[in-house]
Amino acid sequence: MAFALSSAKVFPLETEASFRSTFPHIAIIGLTAANTDTALNLATLAAADTTYGPYITELLNKADKLLGYFFLESQRSSGAVVKALDSSASAGGAATETLTVTGLLTTDTILGATIVEDGANSVYIREAAKTCAVNGQYVMTFSGDPGAGLELRVLVLREGGAANGTDHVLSGTAAAPVFTFAGGGDTPTALTLCLLVNIKKDYGPVRSTNV
Questions:
Q1: Is the pTM of this model over 0.70?
Q2: Euclidean distance between CA atoms 173 and 116, whole angstroms
Q3: What is the pLDDT of residue 22?
């Protein structure tokens, strides 16, 4: 999944500047994303969308200056979060095995692990690693060889730290702004981008929309 448009509201502001042939506009843009997405190129995104994209494209094409912006996130917890991560199936062959756990980070605090799918052999957990030494890998020692097919569920505490879901770097131009998020699985899956844009002198206002 990549960034996608979910709504768009574009309208001009009636200000004193409007009488001097400049037209400040506000755009309120709804977005969805995967939590691992990092690069939001607004011009490229708008060009590929037929519902909301034409309004945003018109705004960007007429943009003279990006006066300001901010993000609102609606689907991300603040601070620390608890995550449940499932492992891939064990290969078997020994009592100690390194299992692949997609999304597991070395900075995670391991809260516990449990067997959610038995392997070919009946075993129980004897020793679980306290930490993740390599991203995406978790070492587990069972009472014996689990055989093929065993799966774990690992519970972790992930700190929000100094970064949050909307931490980003802005690059590009007013006509093609690019927002690069910190990533690391922390990008919010639903967010709103609010833009304040000034239209080039002698350009008419952008068509208003409320979709």
A1: no
A2: 50
A3: 66
